[in-house]
Amino acid sequence: MVILKKEAIESLNEKLSLPATGIEQDWEVELADSNRVHEFISYYKKHPLTSDEKKALMSLILASYDDFLNEKDSNTGQFWNDIRQAIESDYDLLTELLDYWSLPDEDDSENWFKITPLIRKIKV
User: Fold this and answer.
1) What CA–CA distance (Å, rounded) separates 3 from 86?
2) Are 22 and 63 in contact (CB under 8 A)?
3) Number of domains in the chain
């Protein structure tokens, strides 16, 4: 996992009314919500965020979208297009996060996240 700044997490918890307890170990995984993917993407695109907030929110978006893919077993193209555009606009900021989700050292697709093939397509 990517290490996220506490201040960014606390800020997003408040701004997005997330049900955080403050003792989450993997904040983005524990608070991922497949039903809020569109809301999280919209917030990322429409609100001014610090670099740390962008990293944290994109972590939450990717975890939420991975959950969405696992639950729905289908790809909602518009969600992914919006996520991809956001990633491309902040690519340099998000490289560590992209490395995590792309699983660059894992060749067996059985061990991949559902989102891994999508991330691999946009990684430079």
Assistant:
1) 20
2) no
3) 1
